[in-house]
Each structure stands twice: as C-alpha cells, then as structure tokens.
Design brief:
heterodimer, A: alpha/beta, D-Maltodextrin-Binding Protein, domain 2, Alpha-Beta Plaits, 3 domains, 12 helices, about 30% strand, B: alpha+beta, BirA Bifunctional Protein, domain 2, 2 domains, 9-stranded mixed sheet, 15 helices, about 45% helix
Chain lengths: ~325, ~375
C-alpha cells in the first residue's frame, strides 16, 4: 500500500491558513516527532504523509510528481510549470492567499494607462534610448507570455529576487511585474497598475500532480480526504433551515429554489410535515419570511458541520484531471 | 560507459563551406558558450524559452548559441578589422529548445559586413544561398523574398501620428497584430476619450514647445520626479502625442486602403516593382530610395544568372526577427510551410550599431539548416 503525500507550506500565513483549512474539514495535521519536524501526518488517517515545504518547493515537487497533492499559489504553478495543465490538476481554489500578478509602471507615466500605451512607450523608448525597457520581475514566464499576447516586443526582463517594487526608483528597471494584494506597496513606491495589466488573479489552490503514482490506495486515501473537504465546504456554504409545513408543495419548493438558491436534500415534507432545506447564509431571513408567509410553522436555522452528498465533486475533478 | 567524440560535421557540409571560403569568406568558429544578453536584447525575450541558459560564477547569464549571426557579429566588432568590409562563413552546432526536434543541430552560413554596395551584396547572398541548395541536389527550391524597407517607407510617407507609425512598423512582422492595428486605426474616432481631458483641451492647438513646457511644469509641481529611466520631457512629449491621437478623427479610409493594397502586392520582383511604382504615384507617396534599392537588387539578381521570374516576392513577407531592416529571403521546399526553410537570411543594417558599433555598418547574411537541407535533398 503506497502512502499519499500531501505537501503543505512550511511557514508563514500560508501555513496557518492551510492548517485551518484542513482542520475545518476535521483533518488535523500533526507532527508526531515534534514541531521542528518537516514530516507530519493527519491524525486518525493512516496512509498519509504530510511534507512541509516552501510554496515554490511544493510547486516543483508537483511538477516532478514527488508529491500527490500540494497547497500552493496559482501564480507559482503558472510561472514554474511549463504547460501546467498537462502536468497538474487545480482541484480547488481555497479562498486564501489571494493576490494579483500585475504590470505596474511609475505614477509619473501619465501617458500610460493601458497595455497598448505601454506597447507604444516600449517601442518609443527603444528608438530614443537605443536599448530596451527593462521589466523587473520574478515572474519571467508569466511576463513573457502576457507581453507576447499583447504584442509587446521591445522589453527586457531583469530577474528580481526580492523587493521588486523598488527597482524603478533604484534605476535597475523601468517597470515591474509583481504580485500585489492591496496595491499599497506599489503606491508607496510611486507605481500604478496598468488598467488592463492584471496578468493573473491568483489564490492558494489545492493542486494534484499528474506525474505522481496514483495507485488504488493513493486514490482511495485522496477520495476520503476530498470527501471530507467537500462535505465541509458544502456545509459552510449552507445553513440548515427546518420547519413544519404540511402544505408545502413542489411549486413552492421550486419558487424557494429560484428565489433563494435553496437545496432540498431530503425532498418534499415528511408525512408529519417536517421540511428540511439548505439555504445560503445570506438568504436565510428571506427564506424564513417566505416560508411563514406561505403557512409554515416555526422556522429554525442552524449551522451545518458536514454535508456528505452522494457525489464527491472534488474527487471527480481529480480523477477527471488525472485522465483515468 | 562509452564516450564518443562529437561527430565532425558531415563531409558534404564541409565541402559547401570550403566553397564559400574559396569565394572569399573567411571561416570562423565562434565560442559555443555565449553571453545571453545580446540574443535577448536583439532577438527579443520570446527567444528566452528556446535558449539553453546558464550562469557563470559572477551571475552573468550565458547561453549555448542559438544561432551564429550574433556571435560572428560580436567577434567581428571586437577584431581590429571592425568597420572594414569583411565576409565570414561558418559551420557548427547551434542549440534551441524545440518540441519534436533535436535541440542540437548544424547551421552553416555567411555574414557580410561593411559593404556599401548593398543591392549587389543582397543579390550575392541569395546566389550563395542557392549554391547551398544546389550543393544538396535541390535544383529549384522556392525562393521567397520580402523587403521590410518598402513597408517602412510607405508608413513614413503617410500622414499619420508618430505613435501609429511606430506601432505599424513594429507590428509588421506580426500579421495578426497588424490587422488589429488597421482595425484600431480605422475606429480611432470612436475610441474612449483619454484621461486628463481638461489639460488636453487647454493644450489643443497650442505651440508644441509651450505645451511641452507646461506639461513638464505640471509634473514638477505635482512633485513627480521621473522614475524608471524616462525623463519628464519624454513623458510630456508622448502625452501630447497621445492627445493629438485622441483628438484626431480616425485614419482616412483612403490611407487604410492604401496600406492594404500595398500589402496585397506580390509576384516576381519586376512586376511587383511596376505595381509599387504605380501605387506610389497614384497615392502620391514617395517610396524613394527603398524602391530604387529594390529594383537595383532585382537587376543584380538577374546579372548573377538567377531567373528572377522564379522569385516569389511579397510586400508582406518578413522573417519574424526584430533586427532585419530590408531585404529578407528564404529558400524552401515549394510545399513547405513558412518557418521551415532550408536557407534563410536578409539584411540587418542596425544590428552592429545595436551591438555597440560606433558607426553604422551595413550587414547582410544567411544561415543554412544542414540537416533539413540534407534530408530535403535525399527525399
């Protein structure tokens, strides 16, 4: 029986968020040999090894197939893995680690608002200065792909290891491609984002490696992990609404579905008139009012812990992506 | 483990290059490992994904040479004879990351520097290229020819905003972009209004020097110090250019029609030249020296015994590399798609300046894909 290897970020907010993400699904990442260990496990789930790596190591390991599943940013996947879709499967965006990879130019460039402006400035710059405009970035491949798509050719990439946003002020580049969350750092450095210069809206993803060995037991372990994650995700996106409503009929249910995005996991009311619905949190009050207007009894609403549905969308996405 | 010596280039390629040496081209063997900078700078960043890159102990980027034009040019510039007319030939491996083809392959070729008799030099390159295909038993390859200088003259001769001229010339080799540019040009009357309408309206029609001074002052008052290598004056100038572009109505349909008619001209060089002359006089655009050069080149080609009627010239033909400035050609299997020629080359008069030459040095040359031409010859 082979072990399913899950790679999790080893430091910073990404690690905290990843831990919280698994914990919410009832999957506690533990380090049996102490907190300094870079290998761990999931409590109560044999057959899983947790590898603590940096986000870029995780991405490389996914590309190579030395881990089955990893948590990493889409920005790194798109930058580091050539032809990413043939080598990894993005199973699910995790809702944290959001950041955009953007093209940013000095605010003083009042003549540059769009990528088309930048294209023209790049050519004019080459003609005037007899050298190409420099773009500081650590996203070499994303930049090249995006610029090529925009028809921009008169530029040079200057690889930047850190503090990219300081490059224009330091005189080592004319503009940058970098990751930003709020844009505050860019503004503080006298830069502005080009209007249509967002290359990628990135977030942390659960990513599976197509090159890993996916035997029966690895798939089975992945299935049970993804089942719990999907159940928890579904639980989080709904509240359980219960009421006694013998007069409820299909037409009313249909109306509730349309107006409030309600699901009826157990169908129409039971013989005693008990009705259970799953409702998006934001629509709860509207639904409760609607039900009572139509003749329902007391309506109670509770949070859900898990909703295990017959299908397993995350696992389906994994198997579809693995292609067998 | 068996260690093999790298195979010597095949005899047939050696004898081809020996013939080029006989014709007066000195054989050179530039280093395999080259600084990456000139390739990225001159061929464009897009070549990066096809190059084998590494770094030396001091962090400088090096590459396995992806072609020999730039290495031969650099060695020539570094030599005592730089600036004088000299011709070189070469044969050796080049390295490119290619899907479905080996990364290492052989190229032979010629580079001719410093000759002022450009039309004759161009014709000689095509003739020497044809010697290569003939050497491999390919009697009648398709000869495709273009001339970027003609398009550049046409655009420079049109009454267009400088920004549009720059863009059309830059996009010449990217046909999809060029079509898009023409659409955008025609629609420019409907374009979104640019930012800073107030300033632009106030400046409309004012004296260019005063306008530039005003914008420069505005930037200074705002405390904006130019960062990123562009001066305030440079930004102001383009800002005003853009303003002019924004207020002008779209490209007259006539100008677009003219560009499209120009790009539709193709055929053998003599009839194309006649069509170009007719178009130029009808539209009152001066194609001047570029067209003279084109006709003179056709004359030299005929004088070299090349059947000019076999040449397929097209005004829209380019080779996708930034550094060509005029004549370009490819010799290919008649059925081969563009981009897989046996022999390809052209004129690149700016290349040596961009590599650091103090004076402009004319340059023309071509490369031969040895494996391709050898297989084509066998087939």
């Amino acid at each position: 029986m082979s072990t399913l290897v899950i790679a999790v970020p080893s430091k910073g907010r990404l690690q905290e968020n990843a831990h919280a993400f698994f914990a919410r699904a009832g999957l506690d990442l533990v380090k049996p040999r102490g907190v300094r260990d870079y290998r761990g496990a999931i409590a109560g789930l044999p057959g899983v090894e947790v590898a603590y790596l940096s986000a870029s190591e995780i991405t490389a390991a996914l590309a190579q197939g030395s881990v089955h599943i990893g948590i990493t940013g889409e920005d790194l996947v798109r930058e580091m893995i050539a032809d990413a879709d043939s080598r990894v499967v993005l199973i699910e965006g995790l809702g944290f680690g959001q950041a955009n990879v953007v093209v940013a130019v000095p605010q003083a460039w009042i003549d540059v608002r769009t990528m088309a402006d930048l294209d023209d400035v790049a050519t004019a710059f080459r003609i005037r200065h007899d050298r190409k405009m420099r773009v500081a970035t650590k996203y070499i491949n994303l930049t090249r792909g995006f610029f090529s798509g925009q028809g921009i050719t008169d530029y040079r990439i200057v690889e930047s290891a850190g503090a990219t946003e300081g490059a224009p002020a330091a005189g080592t580049a004319e503009l940058i491609v970098d990751i930003t969350t709020t844009g505050a750092t860019l503004i503080a450095n006298g830069l502005k984002v080009v209007d249509d210069g967002t290359i990628l809206r990135s977030q942390a993803h659960m990513v599976a490696s197509r090159g890993a060995i996916w035997d029966e037991s690895a798939r089975e372990t992945a299935r049970s992990i993804l089942d719990r994650i999907a159940a928890q995700a579904r639980a989080r996106s709904y509240r359980e609404v219960r009421t006694r409503f013998p007069g409820c009929n299909d037409a009313l249910l249909e109306q509730a579905r349309e107006r409030f995005g309600v699901a009826s996991p157990f169908g129409a009311p039971t013989s005693s008139g008990m009705l259970t619905l799953h409702c998006p949190p934001g629509a709860v009050y509207g639904l409760a009012s609607f039900l009572r207007e139509k003749g329902a009894d007391t309506v109670s609403v509770v949070e859900l812990e898990y909703v295990f549905s017959p299908d397993n969308p995350l696992f389906n996405r994994l198997t579809a992506g693995l292609g067998s | 483990m068996i260690i093999l010596n790298p195979p010597a280039p095949p005899e047939r390629a050696q004898s081809l290059v020996a013939a080029y040496e006989q014709a007066g081209y000195r054989r050179v063997e530039p280093a395999i490992l080259q600084p990456a900078e000139p390739f990225l700078d001159l061929s464009g960043e897009d070549i990066r994904r096809r190059m084998y890159l590494t770094t030396d102990a001091e962090g400088r980027e090096l590459c396995l040479r992806p072609d020999l034009t730039i290495p031969v040019s650099c060695d020539y510039l570094a030599s005592p004879g730089a600036g004088t007319p000299q011709g070189f030939c070469y044969l050796g491996p080049v390295f490119r990351n290619r899907t479905a083809a080996p990364p290492e392959f052989l190229q032979a070729g010629i580079e001719s520097f410093g000759r002022e008799d450009k039309a004759a030099a161009d014709a000689e390159m095509l003739a020497l290229g044809l010697e290569a295909t003939a050497h491999y038993g390919l009697a009648t390859p398709e000869i495709r020819m273009g001339d970027i200088a003609l398009f550049v003259s046409l655009i420079q001769g049109l009454d267009l905003a400088p920004a549009w001229k720059r863009r059309l010339i830059k996009d010449f080799d990217r046909k999809a972009s060029l079509a898009h540019d023409l659409d955008a040009l025609s629609l420019s009357a409907d374009r979104e209004r640019p930012e800073y309408q107030g300033v632009l309206a106030a400046l409309a029609g004012s004296d260019p020097h005063a306008a530039r001074a005003l914008v420069t002052d505005l930037l200074s008052i705002a405390g904006i110090s130019a960062v990123g290598g562009r001066s305030v004056a440079e930004i102001a100038e383009r800002f005003l250019e853009q303003a002019a572009l924004g207020s002008a109505s779209g490209l007259p349909q006539a100008a677009r029609g003219l560009i499209e008619r120009f790009l539709a001209i193709s055929g053998d060089p003599d009839s194309a030249a006649a069509e170009l002359r007719a178009l130029a006089s009808e539209a009152n655009v001066d194609l001047g020296p570029a067209l003279d050069m084109f006709e003179s080149r056709a004359g030299f080609l005929a004088a070299r015994g090349i059947d000019v009627s076999r040449i397929r010239f097209s005004t829209g033909f380019g080779r996708g590399l930034d550094y060509y400035t005029g004549f370009v050609f490819e010799l290919a299997e008649p059925s081969a798609k563009v981009g897989r020629p046996f022999v390809a080359g052209g004129r690149y008069d700016d290349l040596l300046s961009r590599l650091g030459a103090k004076q402009p040095i004319p340059a023309v040359g071509f490369a031969i894909w040895i494996e391709r031409v050898a297989n084509g010859g066998a087939a």
